[in-house]
Amino acid sequence: MAMIALRHDLQAAAGGRRAWRSRALLLICVLVLPNAASAQFFSDRPPPVPPGTIPDIPSGPAISLAPPSGPAAAPLLPAPLTQPPVAAVTAPVPSPLPPAAPGQGVLALTARYGKDMAVIGSGLVWRVYSDRPDETGAFKLIREDRGATPNIVLPPGSYVVHVALGLVSAVRPVTIKSDTDRESFVLPAGGLRIEGRVGSTKIPQNQISFSIYKGSQFEAGERSPLLPSVAAGDVVLLQEGTYYIVSNYGDANSTVRSDIRVQASKLTDVIITHRAAVITMKLVSDKGGEALANTAWSVITPAGDVIKESIGAFPRVVLSEGEYRAIAKNEGKVFERPFKVVNGVDGEIEVIAR
């Protein structure tokens, strides 16, 4: 969105100021646009492995984030990049214009989800920059405001305005005179909230995470995640469009990929269903006996692919439904046992040391 606005404004610029504004907009876009690959989320998990099948993804109805017409209540938009569940507040009321000092002007700012959509009520970050670099080559930040409809008093001159809502942003050059300049930006942002389940059981937040990628999973080419590790229940603000989610339940092979659609001014709840179970393993001398410590474990497929390795008396692993072999190594001896994982049926696998 920012680059589209940039291209449009550069074409409209004229005269000797064109080169300065081109450099100003380009450098400010680079400096202030969110770095999605590292924005507040992190993960030490290796790249996800696509699952064998892609189940259907049920999603709840889209909830409007826009305030209704009239005096009714409206949901509170998230702060960048995530927020707790949406809460109800009154629709934003434009701030009264402050009296401008002699020789100064007022920059009145608003942002909307779309041309004919509601004014965005919160979560915005406004920044006003000089349109020319200083002696160090940096573009000076003149003002920053987090209000919904700020009115900023500025000396006459040329500036660059940048506004962000989550991962959605726009940038525009403005010229202030000794009066009021009203500028309205379009930020087609939508909210996304994800939950994981096995059957009808909700997966605990600390056992599942989601990576969000731009576009469809079926599009060709390698892509880096837009957000590499989103926690269940967080609200993420994204530009309207198509995305796909890679959902990792545990740290073994329970991985699901899902295409979703984000709509401007809507909060969409997505439920991703895994077909998996939590398996606990132990090596015992006799059936029902005490687990032997210092045991090295490997879980492999019938084809011999290693799914998970660990060391301990009671290792727990989340596995997709299917057939496996548990291999236990203790005091130089190797023991193994085949087992089957049934969707939603957590269980314990005993390997007899004989």
Describe what you observe in this structure.
The chain has 354 residues and is mainly β. 7% of the residues lie in helices and 47% in strands. The strands form seven sheets. Strands 1, 11, 12, 15 and 18 form a five-stranded mixed sheet that branches. A four-stranded antiparallel sheet has the order 6-5-8-9. Strands 14-13-16-17 form a four-stranded antiparallel sheet, with no helix packed on it. Helix 1 (2-12) packs antiparallel against helix 2. The termini are far apart. Mean pLDDT is 81; it is low at 1-16, 33-57 and 68-91.
List keywords for this structure.
354 residues; mainly beta; five-stranded mixed sheet; 47% strand
Uncertain runs are 1-16, 33-57, 68-91
- Calculate the mean pLDDT score and round it: 81
The best one-word shape is elongated
> What value does the Rg take, in angstroms?
27 Å
Helical proportion?
under 10%
Give the helices and strands as they follow along the chain. HHEEEEEEEEEEEEEEEEEEEEEEEEE
Question: Main beta sheet, described?
Answer: 5 strands, mixed
Question: What's the tally of helices?
Answer: 2
CA distance, first residue to last residue: 65 Å
Proportion of residues in β-strands = over 45%
Overall number of strands = 25
Structural class category: mainly beta
